[in-house]
Amino acid sequence: MGRYLIRRTLFLILVLFIVSLLTFLIFVKLPAGDPARRAVGRSVTPEQIEAARVAFGLDKPLIVQYARFAKGLVPLPGWFLTEDVYYSYGSFVAVKEEIYRRLPVTITLALGAAVIWLAMGIPIGIISGVRKGSVWDRAGMVFALIGVSMPVFWLGQLLLYLFWFQLGWAPSSGLEIGDSIWTAIAKGEFILPWITLAFTSAAFYARMVRGNLIETMNEDYIRTARAKGLAERRVIYKHGLRGALTPVVTMLGLDIGLLFGGAFITETLFGLPGIGQYAVQAIFVNDFPVVMGVTVLGAMFIAVANLVVDVVYAFLDPRVRYT
Amino acid sequence: MIALVAVLGLVAAACGGDEDPGQDEQTTGAPAENLSGGTLTMAQLADVVSGFDPQKEYYSVTWEYYRCCLLRTLMSYEGVPTEEGGAEIHPDLAAAEPEVSEDELTWTFTIKPGINYAPPFDDVAITANDFVTALKRTANPKANVGGYSFYYSVIEGFDDYANGDADEISGAVAVDDTTLELTLTEPTGDLGYRFAMATTAPIPPLDGAEFGAAQGHDKTYGRFLVASGPYMFEGSEAMDFSVPAKDQAEVAGYVPGRSIVLVRNPSYDPATDGLRPAHPDRIEVTIGGDNDDLYNQVAAGEIDFVVDGAVPPDKIREYQTTPDLQDRMNVYPSDAMRYVSFNLAMPPFDDVHVRKAINWAFDKQGFRQQRGGETTGELAGHIFVNSLQNNLLADYDPYATPNGSGDIEAAQEEMAQSKYDSDGDGVCDDPVCEDILTVTDREDPYPKQSALMQQFLEPLGITLDVKQLERGVMYTRCNDMNSQTALCAGPGWGKDYADGYTFGGPMFDSSGLWPSCCNYQAVGASADQLQEWGYDVAQVPSVDDMVDDCSAATGEERFQCWADFDSNLMEEVVPMVPYLFDNSVDIISANVTNYSFDQFAGLADFGAMAVSGGDAA
Questions:
Q1: What does the alpha-carbon distance between residue A73 and residue A232 come to, in Å, rounded to a whole number?
Q2: A residues 247-276 near B, CB within 8 Å?
Q3: Which whole number is the average pLDDT over B78-103?
Q4: What value of ipTM does the predicted structure carry?
Q5: What is the pLDDT of residues B2-27, one digit of tens each?
Q6: Where are the domains of chain A?
Q7: Mean pLDDT of all residues belonging to chain B
Q8: Which homologous superfamily is A96-316 in?
Q9: A63-73: b or e for each residue (b if 16 or more CB lie within 10 Å)?
Q10: How far is A52 from chain B (nearest CA, A)?
Q11: Which of A46, A98, A164 lies closest to B257 in CB terms?
Q12: How deeply is B488 buried, as exposed, middle or buried, from its count of CB atoms within 10 A (0-12, 13-18, 19+)?
């Protein structure tokens, strides 16, 4: 177990290194404009542009530039997202400060949405799987089809228009100034974003649970359980579901890891000041330190989630061994 | 109500005479106290550009926050439209107009005494030296990446200080607490306007530090900004400048990317300020969101105004056609011009007849339709927006065509005179007219506009190779002479302040050529430069002398000079096709009981917006 974790952690570092290098190369190679030129405004002399380039460290060789950013990714005090390098080329605000401030919003959005999509997707999947071919199954799968087909940006707009603008049942987009996360939750400011973000995933999870359950119910050990005379209810819920839900854990871990890196569309649409909104704003103006910080953070969340899922998976399914 | 107050405002403006503007009330004519109070709630799609640092912010939205609310300058504007005097500057922290020496090289400002900063500097009076501090920070390459130095290089010793060759700016001297003397290297008629920009707003002294309260905040002074206007960031009084800069806590009222909260500055004395009505007690701004949704919130009265959005076309139609809503839509010229620029060093645009032919063929009406129709602006017949020339060329258009839709016949007559039309049939028959490299913005409506342009250029024998790029990349490509871009189809240009120099200098003077900005036309490039950039063309027109002449002119002569310059560009140089003078289109919520458009920033005057729920309610 210990060796497994060490190996996976080293692999995680390698992944982050590759992601950071690719992000850096994209920044360097794509014709996205010179950050120094963008920063200095329009009526400037070559000397001012050069001064900005020096200030940003863009006058140094590429390998040195990358090394400065790479050093900032090492999770050591004084190194991690160091403010000397990781600051916005626009607002000059430290990336670390912004991430710390925005992360609670993103986490709240991701966890709340996950609760909703699990609460919707798993029961629908179970009912559809258990009553395959029934009206319930068909209704569930129509829901799933609609859910996976509906773009998030459209659904969000629709929900806002309907439940805020027309009916006035939900608050509009954005968080009120001065509200803490808990106050915002209490005021219902996260409800529409949660539903928007959860809807597609709920549909996807319903399909997945249904498929897994149908497949599991055809396994030999289920047949054995039935042959032993166990009640069908017990067969389904004690033996069938355990097998059917194990892959859900994997997906859930990865999905949440992904969302911790920012729910780009939902946060932008609903004006939620989270990591995703931060990344979108930075990408639009080629604010490289922000893009690098957020990208690597997102990659780290996914990689860590992957590791956690693999560890948990072994507890859930005794057939899995650490190798 | 708004219509009424606007009429009253016009009367008030007309009767204003030489009195200090705004001492009564700006567009309203009503006593200020009747409109004051309440909370103005606004939204911004995106944060300001450089975190409110006055030496870095080069953004009209931030300029409005500074002008209306946070920072006072030696000279400033009234926050009204051009026709009400919004393009004119008035003494603000200056006690009177500056005294200018006979040779126009020495400007002396006398500063109003006894005006204090906002907390925590509420016991500190603004003095002449604080303006020198601001100039130093403007010159400091570590603090200023906003590019403002360009405007202040005319001050003797400014560049030396910026380059580290001097410890002081020799031409900026605080003679005493209330006298600032500026010595220039050349006559500069618009210096007053340059001292209406927030980069020159005073910075309070702090223990003899070179940059005063901004010392140690090279990157983020905006979050420690000490206000001098009617408002300050909420929580300003809690800032502690007695500790080292790195240990100071940022002001609470500005959370980057999330919110801006302005509250009244207790040090502010309205009796010293004739320019700012400062109606709301509090201004709250949320940052982020979806454009259409935010305008729905305005319609529903949840917020009062969207600072940086684009009113959706369906909302414009709704507000135009619904009588109850018409008063809540405000349309004003924003003093910006949209154009298609020619690279004069790239064939076939090295031939003036080709450039004129395209001006004749240009379907300006079609371009405007694709932007949203008449509301979006006035068809442009020349380059400089009218307010910069005191409307001297308001009716001028040397390429006027029926309905502004282009005249292919006239265009072909012009093309027939070109060296690239060998048989004189009005159609270019030279290979240089095929697949001309054109760059444009990838966002709507520019791709559609490029498609339209291909259609109306086809009868002239011109075909385009259009590259759609992200906006910032497009501007860089247009600017970079090495890119050999022939046509730049997506740019726009707005004034920095109400003077022709802000158009003429950066766009047409050779000092704006690559790698500086933003002469995309290669106007004024030398033979050596053209060769270095890889062009076969060895000579292009230059207008540097005219820019210099106009820069030195003053008063009416200056307006006329820029007008002559503009007409010369349109008829002799022909560096572009100007097609639209942009409008600013706002809608406001039903809560807003007073509105004024600030021509300086091209935005609503936030401080002039009164809200129901204030004393007026």
A1: 53
A2: 267-273
A3: 94
A4: 0.78
A5: 333 333 333 333 333 333 444 333 34
A6: 2-71, 96-316
A7: 90
A8: MetI-like (1.10.3720.10)
A9: eebbebbbebb
A10: 6
A11: A98
A12: buried
